[in-house]
Design brief:
Two copies of one chain form a homodimer. Chain A is mostly helical and about 220 residues long. Chain A contains eleven helices and no strands. In chain A, about 45% of the residues are buried. The structure holds a DNA duplex (30 and 30 nucleotides).
DNA sequence: AGTAGTCTACCGACCGCCCGGTAGGTTGGC
DNA sequence: GCCAACCTACCGGGCGGTCGGTAGACTACT
């Protein structure tokens, strides 16, 4: 989970090396605890204790609880940008681009879901300005997926699917992974990523109708 | 949102009619506020004010904050049982059953997502015994969907999909609706339900491979 | 080598506030 | 007179956050 180091570095500015390490550890621990207990149910003392500091000592490194949350969510959003969106932007073919998006996003979650899960679950813990910032970036992401679906529709590969609904539904499928996936479970991360990616593609691609010959109706 | 009345009635036992109404209003308001702000960020005073009582007055009707949460989640789970699982159980054909599950669950969410959303987002606010109860019922639901997918696989309509992963993915797609659907949005509830249901069926049904002729790889 | 000053990395004690919850009334309809 | 349906006033406690202090490493000067 050393990835949060980057966010810590960014927040630390021109600090000494020891301070960078400590700060990274704090961000990492906070993300883990926020993820497990939720933001509001986590006290500053919880985080301090987890990194072997007192509350006052912790405040040497952080500005406040809200800033901690915003930093973690900003990091998660950066991760999404760098690991999912940017690589996908370089893929021209819409179907391949969609596969890239789903597979990379799903992989991020199976690797470490803390920050990414906080990103979607703790929005109301942010200050209004910070929330607007994060929500805007999230909307850009959904729009990017919707645009990809629209491109697939223009190719005739997708028929009769609203791109926005499609994008939200795929995102829901992906995000939910963090609720049920266990690294020590029956399937390993790569298998889960592959399964979900296949489902996502299948969900949006047009393969004729799915009317059910043996089905008297949905009543 | 009068549906919570039932849960209130159940909790009230043999109370007078006026008390039933008041209690139902409390449960309804609490569900709405928990949904909007989250359980931990909602104070008993918030709920009391919303129903025009003081905190002490509210305690005439409720036993405590945790019981309130558990009652709301129990109601949501009852709703799922009665409106989704039981009707679906009566559908023999697996594909029709799956359509029933998705459409009915999605419709519940577009109609009133408060209690159902609390049900999945506030589990850690419960006491351990209560949490075990709710989690058990949720697992039963996912198993029910997975069994339906397994039946479809036995029919040859689904190939190469892990039923458990499939069930979780569909649930994620459905639950996420509560995060983006707005009753005053571009699409009405029925359209959203229909779109999501079609995507869900398409996601699991086997329609040949989706390999991409114009795709040099997923780089 | 000694020592005075400085800075980092903390800690113990404390602040005001709000929380969930309660004790003990008060009021109004039957 | 009684009881349902509230209220005012309060409790202990934990919260986020701050304050003044300090051990110890490091530097600067004599």
């Amino acid at each position: 989970m050393t990835a949060l180091d980057n966010a810590a570095l960014r927040a630390a500015g021109t600090a000494a090396n020891g301070e960078q390490d400590r700060r990274a550890e704090i961000y990492r621990s906070a993300a883990r605890i926020f993820h497990r207990k939720g933001y509001h149910a986590t006290s500053i003392n919880d985080i301090a204790a987890a990194v072997g500091l007192t509350k006052a000592g912790l405040y040497y490194y952080i500005k406040g609880k809200q800033d901690l949350l915003f930093a973690i969510m900003g990091f998660a959003m950066d991760q999404l940008d760098e690991q999912v969106i940017e690589p996908a932007r370089r893929v021209q073919d819409p179907q391949a681009r969609l596969e890239t998006i789903v597979a990379r996003h799903a992989r991020l979650i199976t690797q470490d879901s803390s920050a990414l899960t906080i990103l979607v679950n703790e929005l109301e813990g942010l200050l209004p300005d910070d929330r607007a910032d994060i929500i805007g970036r999230q909307r850009d992401y959904v729009d990017f997926i919707a645009d990809t679906l629209a491109a697939l529709r223009d190719e005739g590969k997708v028929v009769g699917l609203d791109p926005t609904v499609g994008a939200f539904s795929l995102v829901g499928m992906i995000l939910w992974i963090s609720r049920w996936y266990r690294a020590d479970g029956r399937l390993d991360g790569d298998e889960v990523v592959a399964e979900v990616t296949r489902m996502a593609i299948s969900a949006v691609l047009n393969r004729g109708d799915h009317s059910n010959p043996g089905n008297p109706g949905t009543g």
